[in-house]
């Protein structure tokens, strides 16, 4: 399986100036990366913004795999979270070979998990651990594209400087009203969600601008015209789209770490938002429109590039 070169113009902003191993990491890290580039597609956005749906659709491609979130690796290895298949580190048909691959390379999954958890205070060992984990996933699965649904751009930033890995961030967003309504349904604060929407949107736009190739899309557009949008993303990922990504994404065995309840669904129906007018109060609608409008417009502008 070989990746083709994306035909679309590189989407957003500057070329990545740091697409090499940082000097501080030295050659051992570079040596552990796969010889051919593995493409990683970090799905950026917020909880309930369509990230799990998109990860599943992308991961349905025969040359791709959706792993859930790297951010959940530590909880999985420490037996605090299970894989979406119900398995644990000793039984999951996908993750057990990945962990065995690490051990064969004399790497301890528990130590990698600890390094990932310490990413905010010790970025270099976390970056090294992330690279080693991605290399093991690529080797054990044979996938050319790894889809990570950690959502927070910090995970994309962790991977981007590594040799042997090309990061193609995919930012998916809802309108602030739809996002606030999703939060209220889950009994979360509407205003807390709005603040998060503004700050996360800004961080996602910055991350997609920094990457060499990236895609930004609206959840409502994915629901309305999934075929062309999946084709556009797959082109950026160097693969031809597979019809099953739109028609039959629900039936593929899934080994995602974390994700919302729809990770367990076996239906391939795409559910668009049920609307927000009956969920939010008139005051909430007015405030969310005013405060979230600029972030939404900026997201939309980026999606049209
Ligand atoms: Zn599993």
Break the fold down into its secondary structure elements and pairings.
Blueprint: H1 26-32, E1 38-44, H2 51-59, E2 64-66, H3 73-77, H4 95-104, H5 109-117, H6 123-141, E3 145-151, H7 153-159, E4 165-167, E5 170-173, H8 176-185, H9 190-210, E6 215-218, H10 219-224, H11 226-236, H12 244-247, H13 282-303
Parallel strand pairs: 1-3, 1-4, 1-5, 2-3, 5-6
Helix pairs in contact: 4-6, 5-6, 8-9, 9-13
The structure holds zinc ion.
Zinc ion (ZN) binds next to loops.
DSSP, total strands: 6
Shape category = globular
Helix content: 40-55%
Q: What are the secondary-structure elements, in order, as H or E? A: HEHEHHHHEHEEHHEHHHH
Mean pLDDT: 87
Major pleated sheet: 6 strands, parallel
Radius of gyration: 19 Å
Separate helix tally: 13
Distance between the termini: 29 Å
Organism: Salipiger marinus
InterPro entries: P-loop_NTPase
Protein name: Sulfotransferase family protein
Pfam family, one: Sulfotransfer_3
What features would you highlight for this structure?
single chain; 305 residues; alpha/beta; 6-stranded parallel beta sheet; 13 helices; 9% strand; binds zinc ion
Description of the molecule:
This protein has 305 residues and is an alpha/beta fold. It has a domain of 183 residues. The protein is built from 13 helices and 6 strands. Strands 1, 2, 3, 4, 5 and 6 form a 6-stranded parallel β-sheet that branches. Helix 4 crosses helix 6 and helix 5 packs across helix 6. The longest helix has 22 residues. It is globular and about 60 Å long. The relative contact order is 0.21. Zinc ion binds next to loops. Zinc ion (ZN) binds next to loops.
């Amino acid at each position: 399986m070989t990746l083709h070169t994306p035909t679309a113009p590189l989407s957003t902003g500057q070329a990545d100036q740091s697409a090499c191993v940082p000097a501080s990491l030295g050659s051992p890290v570079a040596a552990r990366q796969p010889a051919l580039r593995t493409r990683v597609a970090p799905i950026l956005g917020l909880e309930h913004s369509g990230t799990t749906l998109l990860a599943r659709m992308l991961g349905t491609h025969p040359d791709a795999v959706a792993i859930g979130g790297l951010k959940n690796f530590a909880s999985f290895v420490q037996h605090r979270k299970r894989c979406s298949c119900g398995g644990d580190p000793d039984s999951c048909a996908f993750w057990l070979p990945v962990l065995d691959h690490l051990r064969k390379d004399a790497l301890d999954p528990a130590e990698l998990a600890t390094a990932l958890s310490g990413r905010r205070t010790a970025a270099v060992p976390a970056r090294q651990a992330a690279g080693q984990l991605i290399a093991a996933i690529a080797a054990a699965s044979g996938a050319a594209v790894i889809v990570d649904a950690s959502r927070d751009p910090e995970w994309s930033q962790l991977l981007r400087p590594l040799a042997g890995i090309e990061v193609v961030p995919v930012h998916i967003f809802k309108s602030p009203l739809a996002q606030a309504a999703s939060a209220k349904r889950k009994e979360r604060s509407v205003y807390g969600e709005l603040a998060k929407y503004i700050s996360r949107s800004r961080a996602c736009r910055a991350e997609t601008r920094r990457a060499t190739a990236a895609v930004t899309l609206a959840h409502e557009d994915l629901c309305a015209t999934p075929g062309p949008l999946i084709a556009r993303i797959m082109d950026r990922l160097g693969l031809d789209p597979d019809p099953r990504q739109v028609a039959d994404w629900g039936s593929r065995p899934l080994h995602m770490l974390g994700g919302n309840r729809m990770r367990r669904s076996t239906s391939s129906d795409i559910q668009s938002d049920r609307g927000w007018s009956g969920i939010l109060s008139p005051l909430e609608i007015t405030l969310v429109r005013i405060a979230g409008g600029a972030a939404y417009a900026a997201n939309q502008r980026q999606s049209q590039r």
